[in-house]
Amino acid sequence: MYNVNVKTIPHELQRYETCGDYWTEGGCIQFRVTSLGNADYEFLIAMHELIEKQFARKLGISEQTIDAWDLAHEEEEEPGAMLECPYREAHMMAEAIERVLATKLGVDWEHYTKTIRSVMENTRIPLDPTVRDRPDAEVWHKGQKGKVPHRYLGSRRKAAKGKIKERSLLQGK
Prior knowledge:
This protein is α+β, with helices and mostly antiparallel strands and 173 residues long. 35% of the residues lie in helices and 17% in strands.
């Protein structure tokens, strides 16, 4: 096993527009989860990140590859669910397990996603993804309205005519 550090933080302290993040620093994997005011929701995000990290590692996908993909596709609702995404398999497995955990915890998935959207839409985050745990960053931008946080809710992609299209790991890639 490896050393991990999981912290719940205010959304504005995330490195970029995400509710969950991870990177390795000093031999310890750092996980950051946006504070949502609900321990079950924060647990689900943390579990998604832990699972995604482990599957990506087993598939030989580096954190740098994941970060580069996410930052290059910030305009997408869910970069991890895109067909071309290098860590898509890890992301989709993490989401499938996250959904099972949500069901077992009695979490309403719709309310969960709405809570995440609300926090992200109303919070400024640093433009510089190297900013970590620093409230004094000088360059900020406001969360993008209507965007679903990446690394989460990847199956909730907007389909034509504004309807939500559900995707599942079980439906294949």
